[in-house]
């Protein structure tokens, strides 16, 4: 079969040239990724595979927006594969969302795909996700060391168009050292509720200067700690138990912990009131 590998996306015409009939393509031996594009059944299909299929059917396209960000390691859910193409390019593929730009976007190569750079992708998403999500994306790019804060803010400052203000605001609110996107969204709930911005990734150190504990969000002067508990620790019971014990140790030293779950984020006003109450109590006691 030469260079033909059915474990990678291929066009129907290519399969026929290599002796695979269209009838067999419709059998359980193969799976259709996109209309006219197939892969051998049993092959692992991820976002990269789907993007490879889309680019195969739209030659010259650059993977962008939600799809590019997910491939960079920052998951931004989308049902369709997002591609950027020149203005006159068209497609009738329902699995693909085309974005048309006069100027070619900044791109690089990853997994053999032409893909917008992390900075370009962040700017592109400014018109497609809300402010809190865009901040969370920026925080994650920083955490993965795909961009620097200076690069992020420079790109945001150069952004033009109706969404440029949102892009600049997200870059201004981005912080280094944030461990998860949910922590970013929690921080945005706090700021959006009119409360002071808490310090990110606060370090409690021992007398010798070594780090004893990192806390996600704090009001250090009031000894208020806010932590997101996604309950993913349920698969790491020992880690979860250790976190509880560390919290108890710090509470014995005067820290007030506010533990936030995903359920709490569904009722932000109730969460904000918990934080306001803690601030009031600590301020009165100071």
TrEMBL record:
SUPFAM superfamilies: Restriction endonuclease-like. Signal peptide: none annotated. This is DUF559 domain-containing protein. Gene3D superfamilies: VSR Endonuclease. It comes from Metallococcus carri. Residues 217-279 form the DUF559 domain.
